[in-house]
Design goal:
There is one protein chain. This protein has 287 residues and is α/β, with parallel strands linked by helices. It has a single domain, classed as Spore Coat Polysaccharide Biosynthesis Protein SpsA, Chain A (Alpha-Beta Complex), CATH 3.90.550. Strands 7-6-3-8-12-9-13 form a 7-stranded mixed sheet, sandwiched between helices. A two-stranded antiparallel ribbon has the order 1-2. A two-stranded antiparallel ribbon has the order 4-5. A hairpin with a 5-residue loop joins strand 10 and strand 11. Helix 4 crosses helix 7. The longest helix is centred in the middle third of the chain and has 15 residues. The two termini are 29 Å apart. The N terminus is likely disordered.
């Protein structure tokens, strides 16, 4: 059975295909990189790279940009990109996604699964999405790109939140801008931190460190629950909203990919992204 057939069979629920909605939250007010969504990356706005790559994902039934910026909405309209104007009061991309859920529920177009696609990840690939959605499969064969251990755990059909991780060099683990994650033997997150985790004693042997990639899939039910939870101590201390799920007892399934991305948060990141495009001769994903 080929990839797409696996996905189509797996993403069925009670005989009906589950509706998957991809949302790219975007706001202009970035302290480290002003006007980040529209900053130029090799002649194209950063968010255009994200949208172009996400548009190639066959599993998404709908893809839209959710923003609080009139300028971004106008840019989207000029290119016929679906966009939704949302409240400027949202403190996180997940809060912005919940407004999308609420409005789509009223309109009768609500999805079953929502994918949060960070607007500063210009190099996301279809392979990332295939792996990300695997925990939501209802009894289908696991993704061929997953490890043998992962394959035995993925076809559970009861996932609420999933995300990705990638192995990094030990020296990268000390960078607070790189969010680290540790997981249990069933690929569930134990903790996310800006600090180096796990702490390694000098006699503990070799340790593999993992960077968290900011790509999420949510069941619509858990997104609605998220709205009612208050900010807790760990989320506020680390500045990481995913900890709100863990602090409220919701497991996050974290799957390993070998394909790293470059999140663009600073001018240095932007320069690194441009260098990556030059070195790999990566073409802009036309849409």
């Amino acid at each position: 059975m080929v990839h797409n057939e696996i996905s189509k069979v797996g993403l069925m629920k009670h005989g009906m295909k589950q509706r998957i909605v991809g949302v790219i939250p975007a706001r202009m007010e970035s302290t480290r990189l002003p006007r980040k969504p529209l900053v130029s990356l090799r002649g194209h706005p950063l968010i255009a790279w994200v949208y172009g790559h996400a548009r190639k994902v066959a599993e998404l039934d709908e893809l839209l940009i959710a923003t609080d910026s009139d300028e971004i909405v106008e840019w989207c309209r000029s290119l016929r990109i679906p966009a939704m104007m949302t409240s400027p009061a949202h403190r996180s991309g997940t809060d912005r996604m919940l407004e999308v859920v609420t409005r789509q529920t009223r309109e009768g177009s609500r999805g079953n699964i929502y994918v949060n696609i960070q607007g500063d990840e210009p190099f996301v690939r279809p392979e990332h999405f295939k792996l990300l959605l695997q925990p939501f499969l209802a009894g289908a064969t696991a993704n061929a790109s997953a490890s043998a251990n992962q394959a035995g755990r993925l076809a559970r059909g009861a996932a609420k939140v999933s995300t990705l991780k990638v192995a990094i060099k030990p020296e990268e683990a000390d960078d607070p801008n790189v969010v680290k994650v540790v997981t249990d033997s069933s690929d569930r997150a134990l903790y996310f931190s800006r600090s180096r985790i796990p702490f390694t004693r000098t006699d503990a042997g070799e340790t593999t460190y993992y960077k968290h990639l900011g790509l999420y899939a949510f069941s619509v039910d858990v997104l609605e629950e998220f709205h009612h939870w208050r900010h807790r101590r760990l989320e506020l201390a680390e500045g990481l909203e995913q900890l709100r799920f863990l602090e409220n007892g919701v497991p996050i399934i974290v799957l390993e990919t070998r394909q790293d991305t470059i999140g663009v948060d600073t001018r240095a990141d932007l320069a690194a992204a441009e260098e990556f495009i030059l070195q790999t001769a990566l073409e802009f994903p036309e849409f």
